[in-house]
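Limitations

Structures in this collection are predictions, not experimental determinations, and the ligand pose is part of the prediction. Treat each record accordingly. The example that follows, with adenosine-5'-diphosphate as the small molecule, is included so readers can see exactly what is and is not provided: the inputs are given verbatim, and the output is the predicted complex.
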Amino acid sequence: MRYAHTVERVRAAEESLMRRLPEGALMQRAAAGLAATCLQLLAGGAERGAGRRGRGSRRVYGSRVVLLVGSGDNGGDALFAGARLAARGVRVTAVLLAGERTHAAGSAALLGAGGVLTQDQAAGLAQLGRADLVVDGIVGIGGRGGLRDSALPYVRAAERAGVPVVAVDLPSGVDADTGEVAGAAVRATVTVTFGTHKPGLLVDPGAQYAGVVRLVEIGIEPGPAAVEALQHADVAGLLPRPTAESDKYRRGVVGIAAGSDRYPGAAVLAVSSALHGGAGAVRYAGPAAAEVVRAHPEVLVTQGGPKAAGRVQAWVVGPGLSDGPEAERTLEEALAAGVPVLVDADGLRLLARRGAAPRAELLLTPHAGEAVALLAGAGVEATREQVEGARIGYARRIAELYGCTVLLKGSTTVVAGPDPAAPVRVNPTGTPWLATAGSGDVLSGLAGSLLAAGLAPVDAGSVAAYLHGLAARTVGEGPVTAAEVAAALPAAWRGVTGAA
Ligand SMILES: NC(=O)C1=CN([C@@H]2O[C@H](COP(=O)(O)OP(=O)(O)OC[C@H]3O[C@@H](n4cnc5c(N)ncnc54)[C@H](OP(=O)(O)O)[C@@H]3O)[C@@H](O)[C@H]2O)[C@@H](O)CC1
Ligand SMILES: Nc1ncnc2c1ncn2[C@@H]1O[C@H](COP(=O)(O)OP(=O)(O)O)[C@@H](O)[C@H]1O
Ligand SMILES: [K+]
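Predicted complex:
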């Protein structure tokens, strides 16, 4: 598991550790890690530079690095790292954005190592035009709001230079706790973050600005995480594995109530993905029964609603369900079954119309537009853009309002459970190629299968999102169809369990 902690926790852990260490020790640890990444990039990147010391050293010596330095310790880190680079023969110029308020010891260290400080805008911009690498030490976890106007000309010049940008702790302008970007932010090639990940580095839009994130351990122990991201080993540990005693019922039977005369395809996709998602059997209830059996003869079908379908361990209700009394009845019957229920797509709009009532057994899987409808159903106004800009907060909010688990889809999928003290899971495997019609139906079928196999809603949702992203990548870097993603799920599954 990868963990991310709030600024509040990082600060508390830093204070507690600093009391036990000599002054400046933590900053030196941070600066050493930061300088190591800069040297690696100057030497030709992690892959190309490794093992070719001679050539790498020549590229480092005499190369030009510009530090963008703000008023706080984030700038201090940049200055101390700059001093380390200067000691290796790098020509380092620090552009001071905050004049006299710059970290004094850091400035002295850089000057002592042969670096240059400037407060002159024209000189700073000229240096950026010649730089081989730029370090963003404008602001770190002390930042509030987006980048200030005074920093913009430098950030734009760094972008124009087209050289690697290394963000110190997090890209300036990204909110550390939420990933929100109010206005402009630095676009980093690599972010070197200290002590723990920050939530804003793992969730869009912030994650899009962070580039590759490297964690430098500095010894802090920040306690409970605010955000966590599954890795292969975690997923392998959560995936159900049949044993000698298993039969199809014990492995879990998932019911799919999806599709309509208008949208039979959603039913076929959700069923296909449920079949590939590890359930012992799949039951289908709805008007697309004929299409479903034609595509998947192993499915038990009924033309009626969930009540007519027989026993299942979890229901998936909503994809392609359409609107109207029949759809409403379908949702009612699934909710009345007394088993975990995943509600998606049209089911979410129907649920929102009923208003929010706490139901711990629900897993809701909205995209931003459906999230807006759910919020409205609970009397909260928000726009799609607001939801997309502050994904963690809105997923938590809906989970709290509906007293259940919420998987908010999109560029970063996040899963929040009903317990506000528990960490939110963010999915690290997503790919924008998944933004294709029907891909959400595939996610629902898979998550439903996992629910039926007995996974808790937060695990079912986050494991499904993980495999869904991997499956799309397994198909290849390029366009994928939803049906291809469903078909690639077993390969993604094997990739995870085989690697663990
Ligand atoms: N915690 C740890 O374990 C360790 C932390 N370390 C490092 O310390 C960093 C945190 O340092 P920090 O506390 O000095 O805050 P920091 O981010 O430099 O900003 C401070 C000043 O910026 C200003 N400012 C605010 N918003 C702004 C904006 N949008 N745009 C521009 N300026 C803005 C604001 O001043 P203002 O101008 O508002 O008076 C504020 O006072 C952390 O990220 C890490 O790099 C490591 O050294 C080792 C271990
Ligand atoms: N930009 C993106 N990056 C990564 N994944 C995305 C992106 N946009 C959408 N997705 C994923 O694609 C799927 C789309 O689901 P959904 O919006 O329900 O589409 P549909 O209704 O067509 O099935 C979700 O899993 C979502 O997380
Ligand atoms: K920064």
